[in-house]
């Protein structure tokens, strides 16, 4: 049975009052990374996220992120904090308020807002990064240009292009939209869908991300329907909100799926449950359980 949990529409304008006469001593937080290599100080953290130190302090005040402190009182951010704040930046850029961001980041299946089953970038990530860099250069775009078009920080895009960061489904969808391609187009080389109405299991295009998500393409050439078979490892999912033109339908075959629409409406689906909605609604999804989740997902027009 589907459990439909609809969040209350909490509002938080995220405004941080400006202090008058702010002590200049606060500038001491602008320091190089900790000598022990265990953390990053606020100025460098802000650069990595593509935000300002003021925004980072505001997110802390809103209890969206909680950096540790040195004995001297300086804020120190971990890699997990950086990834969390990149998601905060992306979500707020998409119009999600502070309460909606908090609910998404602290949803089931996530630890401190970061999927529990992340793995290190692999050759797959390096291949994706190279494809993005080639497309960007072909269009004559700078990192800042692409950042402006996607809402992703320039430092994050640079890390993806160099293969130093494994891109999420949400970030690939945003980047693909800029280049008139899709997630599958960025994740694989040239591919021609079968012309036959029948797709044999060995003819499927199968793509594994470094984010614990497997996508099996079940589509045939010439169709506006895009049937995909997703497998989400525990704690893994879109890793960010997605919105685009069209409609989508999905059916949970095994495991449990968490879906959040518009940053507030939450659903937990079990095997046999299905759902459909307009794709323009910001949607984030993931596996909140402790076993793999398999979902048959159909988009129209083709999205992935």
TrEMBL record:
SUPFAM superfamilies in UniProt: lambda repressor-like DNA-binding domains, Putative DNA-binding domain, RmlC-like cupins
Keyword Iron-sulfur tagged: no
InterPro entries for this protein: Cro/C1-type_HTH, Cupin_2, DNA-bd_dom_put_sf, Lambda_DNA-bd_dom_sf, MerR-type_HTH_dom, RmlC-like_jellyroll, RmlC_Cupin_sf, TransReg_Diox_bact_type
Instruction: Spell out the residue ranges making up region: Disordered.
Output: 1-31
> Recorded GO terms, molecular function?
DNA binding; DNA-binding transcription factor activity
Its cellular-component GO annotations read:
cytosol
Domain named HTH cro/C1-type: residues: 132-186
State if Mitochondrion is listed as a keyword: no
Q: Which CDD domains match?
A: cupin_XRE_C (cd02209), HTH_MerR-like (cd00592), HTH_XRE (cd00093)
PANTHER family, per database record: HTH-TYPE TRANSCRIPTIONAL REGULATOR, METHYLPHOSPHONATE SYNTHASE
Name used for this protein in its record: MerR family transcriptional regulator
Source organism per entry reads Mycolicibacterium rhodesiae (Mycobacterium rhodesiae)
Q: Give the taxonomic lineage as stored in the record.
A: Bacteria, Bacillati, Actinomycetota, Actinomycetes, Mycobacteriales
């Amino acid at each position: 049975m589907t459990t439909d949990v609809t969040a209350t529409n909490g509002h938080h304008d995220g405004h941080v009052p400006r202090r008058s006469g702010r002590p200049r001593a606060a500038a001491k937080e602008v320091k190089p990374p900790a000598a022990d290599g265990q953390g990053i100080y606020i100025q460098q953290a802000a650069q990595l996220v593509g935000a300002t130190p003021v925004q980072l302090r505001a997110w802390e005040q809103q209890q969206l992120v909680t950096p540790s402190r040195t004995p001297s009182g300086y804020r120190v951010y971990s890699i997990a904090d950086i990834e969390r704040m990149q998601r905060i930046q992306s979500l707020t850029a998409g119009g999600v308020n502070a309460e909606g961001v908090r609910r998404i980041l602290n949803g089931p299946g996530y630890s401190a807002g970061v999927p529990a089953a992340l793995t290190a970038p692999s050759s797959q990530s390096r291949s994706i990064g190279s494809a993005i860099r080639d497309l960007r250069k072909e269009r004559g775009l700078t990192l800042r240009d692409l950042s402006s078009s996607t809402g992703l920080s320039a430092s994050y895009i640079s890390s993806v292009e160099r293969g130093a960061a494994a891109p999420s489904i949400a970030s690939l969808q945003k980047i693909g939209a800029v280049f008139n391609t899709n997630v599958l187009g960025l994740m694989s080389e040239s591919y021609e869908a079968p012309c036959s109405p029948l797709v044999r299991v060995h003819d499927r295009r199968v793509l594994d991300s470094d984010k614990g998500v497997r996508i099996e393409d079940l589509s045939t050439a010439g169709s506006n329907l895009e049937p995909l078979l997703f497998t989400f490892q525990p704690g893994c999912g879109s890793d960010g909100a997605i919105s685009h033109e069209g409609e989508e339908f999905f059916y949970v075959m095994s495991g449990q799926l968490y879906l959040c629409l518009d940053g507030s409406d939450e659903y937990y689906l079990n095997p046999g449950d299905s759902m459909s909605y307009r794709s323009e609604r910001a949607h984030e999804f993931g596996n909140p359980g402790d076993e793999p989740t398999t979902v048959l997902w159909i988009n129209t027009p083709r999205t992935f």
